[in-house]
Amino acid sequence: MTSFTLDDLRELLGSIAGVDESTDLSGDIADVPLADLGYDSLAMLELAGHVQRRYGVPIPDEAVERMTTPRSTVDYINAQFATVG
Amino acid sequence: MSASDADVGAVVTGIGVTAPTGIGIHAHWQSVLDGKTGIGRITRFDPESYPVRYAGQVPGFAARERVPGRLIPQTDHWTHLALAAADDALGDAGVDPAGLPEYEMAVVTSSSSGGTEFGQHEMERLYRNGPSWVGAYQSIAWFYAATTGQVSIRHGMRGPCGVICAEQAGGLDALGQARRLARSGYRLVVSGGTDASLCPYGLTAQLATGRLSTVDDPTLAYLPFDAGASGYLPGEGGAILIVENGRHARERGAGEGYGSILGYAAGFDPPPGSGRPPALRRTITAALADARLAPDDVDVVFADAAGCPDLDAAESAAITAVFGRRGVPVTAPKTLTGRLYGGGAPLDVATALLAVRDGVVPHTVGVTRPDPDLDLVLGEPRELPLRRALVLARGHGGFTAAMVVGTSRRR
After folding, report:
1. How far apart are CA B347 and CA B179, in angstroms?
2. Does B306 lie in the same domain as B199?
3. What local confidence, expressed as pLDDT, does residue A84 receive?
4. Which of B252, B287, B310 is the last residue of a domain?
5. Which of B252, B279, B308 finishes a domain?
6. Which of A53, B57, B137, B362 makes a 20 to 30 Å CA pair with A83?
7. Among candidate residues B377, B342, B51, the one with its CA nearest the CA of residue B211
8. Based on the domain organization, do B278 and B240 belong to the same domain?
9. Contacts A43 to B, Cβ<8 Å
10. Is B411 among the domain residues?
11. Residues B154, B176 within the same domain
């Protein structure tokens, strides 16, 4: 089964939504609210689209509400991997 | 608006330029005085199969050096150019927005095409791969107000914000609105504008007007007021200006800055075939009346300079009707950039303020057979004591605007 890691998330966020000068994504960010890292709901919709295309798993728009921190985002995406096998 | 706010008026205290003539005031002004063109073969895409292959492009602009990392993938090239110019303009004005009340700062820019390059990219993904491939940022990046919004968010400016879409006239309309806000007590307005539509979709949309020159020589394609005028070339970029309430500017020691916005008026052309004259003459007259100035008080006219014989003749007639035959020096430094639409008039206003500052009228490059009714400044810059400049702009569809800038001191 594929798994999605915090590093995968770091890489995706940086490439699709960019990184603020004041934000250090390489640190201990797992439980920092994504909004505090500078990623709004639009950034998360963009992320959802990329994950769907790259991994072929469905990420419905409503899921964005559950993706509030890097940890909850990684957990959600991995749960979706599990549903599609 | 209190009488005192209206009397102190609106002053321009900062200028940021991202234009084919260069990035920054110094590079731009030096290019203008040297008559150094920013027009060349289009490199942002391969223009070989298009009837127009030349345009003014901003040289050496690297978004990753000038735009916050997180904003680059979210915004179009046109907004990148404006964000960089806004940073420069605020720096030039010596303003730290973080230290000012957020509701007393406003943002009003002009935009005529929105984010066409970004939009084209997403449209390509749509028809090649399907709807799920269209990025979420398309929802904001194409939008005419994206530049205003991003500048507002970036600098924490929560006063009245807006965008004006009136093609080339929009830049003067935006500055006119900035002046109105500054006079009604808002401390500072980030205004002006940029445009950037040098992608296949953007160029194709411009071709639809039939006014682009298809002459296949960058030195001969855009010759406003010349017997050989054949249309104009497009360009990208523009200028962002910091417009301040004069009293606030004085209180913080910025004084008169580059000068004041002394008068402004907008008009709209009658429909084609109506037999009524275009709006330009009465718009000029209205702008002078708004400035409480007579034609003699204007020392130079920065022409709209469409480069199309019919529009040039109409502009020449309007200028001549107000100022007399060869009654005022006229120039069109946009021959070095092409027409920049939403960015064109702000760049002209910036250039006009620099001209007044330095007492020199930049020349119009390329024209060799000028309209005999105009005192078109040709060949080299003309040194003159300048107090006030009139900037004209007309936008496709009938938009017309005129603005008087310069020193508020009377003779």
Report:
1. 16
2. no
3. 80
4. B252
5. B252
6. B137
7. B51
8. no
9. 136
10. no
11. yes
Inter-chain residue contact B68 with A46, CB threshold 8 Å: no
ipTM: 0.89
Q: How far apart are CA B191 and CA A16, in angstroms?
A: 29
Say if B153 is an interface residue toward chain A (CB within 8 Å).
no
- How close is the nearest chain B Cα to the Cα of A14, in Å? 8
Facing residue for A46 by CB, picked from B71, B72, B136 = B136
**Interface contact flag, B68 A49, Cβ < 8 Å:** no
The number of folded domains in chain B is 2
Eight-class DSSP state of B363: P
Task: Note the pLDDT tens digit of each residue in B12-69.
Answer: 999 999 999 999 999 999 999 999 999 999 999 999 999 999 999 999 999 999 999 8
Structural domains in chain A, CATH included, are 6-16+29-84 (1.10.1200.10)
| B310 and B376 co-located in one domain | yes
- Cα separation of B94 and B17, whole Å? 16
Q: Are residues B269 and B210 in the same domain?
A: no
User: Which residues have CB under 8 Å from A82's CB, separation 6+?
Assistant: A1
State the average pLDDT over residues B159-165.
98
CB atoms B70 and A45 under 8 Å: no
Residue B33 lies in a domain: yes
Rounded to a whole number of angstroms, the distance from the CA of A38 to the nearest CA of chain B is 8
Residue B40 tokens, joined: 């060349």
Determine, for residues A17 and B73 on separate chains, whether the beta-carbon distance falls below 8 Å: yes
The model's pTM: 0.95
Q: Which residue type occupies B278?
A: P
Closest-CA distance of chain B to residue A54, Å: 11
Domain of B276 in residue numbering reads as 261-406
